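cron nightly-structures :: item 1 of 1
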Amino acid sequence: MTDVQALVVGAGPTGLTLAGELALRGISCRVLEQRAEESNLTRAFGVHARTLEQLDMRGLADPLVGQGIQVGEIRPTFGWSSVRLPMRHPESRFPFVLIVPQARTEALLAQHVKALGVPVERGSMVIDVRDDDRGVTVTIEGRDGVRTERADYVIGCDGAHSRVRRSMGVGFSGSTYDTSILLADLRLADADTMAVRTYLGRDGVVLMPPFGDGWVRAVIWDRRRQHVPLDEPLGIDEVTESLNRLAGHDLGVREMRWSTRFRNQRRQADAYRKGRVFLAGDAAHVHSPLGALGMNTGIQDAMNLGWKIAAAIHGHAAPWLLDSYHTERHPVGTAALRLTDLLQRISIAPPPVRAVRPFLARGALAIPAISDTLRRRVAGLSIAYPPRDPRHAHDWEGGRVPDARLSTGRLYEALHHGRFLLVRRAGANTADTTGWDGRVDSAETADPTFPALTLVRPDGYAAWAGDDPGSARTAITQWCGPARHPSTPV
């Protein structure tokens, strides 16, 4: 007997997204958060197109877009020279990077899980996690002392120093960068509120996304300050000196309301699953903030995992489904680490490389194939998962399904309930989905680029595609479990 079907540890964007995915499917869950109060600290500030698309699949993207700034390009400056990486995605409803403080993203997700009836228990620190064949025992230190609880599944979304991961005995492979990072929230005399300013100087790099209220976040890698102790206070004079030197001119710092130092890491959990315990977000991967991939990757972890755990609890999941979380998401985390590490090394490169950076960057980004590949990788639009049977897979299987126009509206709107969606191209033979009510919805599109039949997963990727209705029913059985008899509960 368990106290709850799922415990989510951590109330950041990843944990809240995951809790929403579970509750949407009728799973009893609770979120445990060590912080006693909601955080107004912004660590992440960029939301990329694929994350917005997945939030759109739950009706959450438009309210968030209304609170942020839409940036259509990233423009690094190398002293006297600038280059441009366009982020205007023609294939997406969100052709931009959304600059919005993490606190606003968390607040929106918190409202979502509250509306779904998910309790968030603050001031509760997980001390230990132990799983067995029947469930997971969690030891929790809360306001009323230490207690234990049982859950069918536990998901650790509790950050880089995850206690869940440590309890699992899972390695966190990687290393720590030598260069410490300075963070500060600043008001500038000439603050550009509509663009992310980036400066790559001789001694490091500055990244300054705007918050939209006259303030900017300064993210500073300064080689001259890399050995300053992390506990030494960071004042406005030190921040101003680093900023102006790296930018090559006076940026007009007028006020600072918050600052800190931290040591950045590049690490990844060796396994995202161990028995009935899973890892997501920063508990599974941490890396350089260059590229703004951390929170995005975590939210996408949650979108991949939530429906799979729900299917297992409901008894619909094939034996391989829960293992597919690691199989699909671990390579995505690895790719994020490699990309951010490359950007980090270019930004703080040694003198011979710094001398040629402007020419290499301008030359590379002038090649459409390179520019487009980088744009799609940063935005998450190129992510694809391996098909179940690579030998006989349709080209669409495992790939991102575009937000096509359906006879009833947009495809992503049809995913708001979090169910699978069988999309039939107009004029093609249909497949009978009787027996999968509550698990599979049906829709029709006139889009000629679509296969005859496409089984769309709840996270917006193609589980199966093809022409044969019989094969479609086989795929539905594989992904969604056997069709139920009319008298069998969902």
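cron nightly-structures :: done
The mean pLDDT is 88.
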